[in-house]
Amino acid sequence: MVAGLACAAAAAWLGVSSPATAQTNQEHGMSVEPSRDWLGGIPESPTEDWEVAFGGRLYDNWAVAIDVAEPHKNHSSYPPWGKKHGYVTWRCKECHGWDYKGKDGAYREGSHYSGIKGLRGLVGKNPAIVMEALRDEVHGYTPEQLPDSVAERLALFVTRGQHDVDRFIDHESSQARGDAGQGERIFQNVCAACHGFDGKAINFKSEENPEFIGTVGSANPWEALHKIRNGHPGVPMPALRFLPIQNLVDILAYVQTLPKM
Predict the structure, then answer these.
(1) Structure confidence at residue 35 (pLDDT)
(2) 76 Cβ partners below 8 Å, 6+ apart?
């Protein structure tokens, strides 16, 4: 049932409509593929909110965000003691963390530990500094992997798009510092369109080992808040960065009350 709802939600968002849905859309003069433009297109006059959110999706998973081939070998700067392999070692979040604090944050231990520092010191800096770092020997991203126009948006995110996670998520308890009641109002009118009112319409894993939005919100609230603000790469999940961040923390607080299994 959950898998079916997930497929239906994904199909609807991605423009893969059933014949009945397609007919209904056509009768009302609606395009059945609006999300394809949203995923792969660029606004004629991009706002900073859009560019920074796009950069946040690049930080999450750049190859998926721009639909390019993933490197298969470990990144040359990924430490030998690291426990990850292949493309994941090229993702910004894998070394610098969902909290942007690297070795000083949630990734200070465990399977994601790399010993690499975070990015908090770059907040407010010139994006050109990040652009230069992306092309240096340490990071080694080529223009074929990250074209300049794409890298510029990643640099904007790093310098202008981070948030201080400790203001919004309690480090010890992992609880969001938000109002779940206020978050429920937003969730029911926005997020539930895809995730369902109980958060179980999309299963990120399998029926045997399910993972829902409530699972992620409780187990990794830093990741959840990042995605609430910036969207999820490769799928038409709205980026809510344009809203006050406290509203998004309220959503996270409500998400943490939803079923985990």
Answers:
(1) 73
(2) 140
**pTM value surpassing 0.85:** yes
123 and 147 share one domain: yes
Burial class (CB in 10 A: 0-12, 13-18, 19+), 241: buried
What are the b/e assignments for 69-83, b being 16+ CB within 10 Å? eeeeebbeebeeebe
Low-confidence ranges of the chain (pLDDT < 70): 1-34
Give the pLDDT score at 26: 44
Q: Which domain holds residue 33?
A: 2-38
Whether 194 contacts 250, CB under 8 Å:
no
DSSP string, 27-43: HTT--S-HHHHHHH---
Q: Where are the alpha helices (DSSP H) in the chain?
A: 2-13, 19-27, 34-40, 48-66, 92-96, 127-135, 148-156, 165-168, 180-186, 192-195, 213-219, 221-230, 245-255
pLDDT tens per residue across span 41-88 = 999 999 999 999 999 999 999 999 999 999 999 999 999 999 999 999
Cβ neighbors of 128 (< 8 A, separation 6 or more) are 155
Instruction: Report the 10 Å Cβ neighbour count for 246.
Output: 15
Same structural domain, 28 and 78: no
Residue 77 resides in a domain: yes
Whether 120 is covered by a domain: the verdict is: yes
DSSP string of 47-71, one letter each residue: -HHHHHHHHHHHHHHHHHHHT-PPP
pLDDT of residue 37: 81
Same domain for 73 and 148 = yes
Question: In the beta sheet, which residues pair with residue 176?
Answer: 169
Task: State the amino acid at position 130 in one-letter form.
Answer: V
Number of structural domains the chain divides into = 2
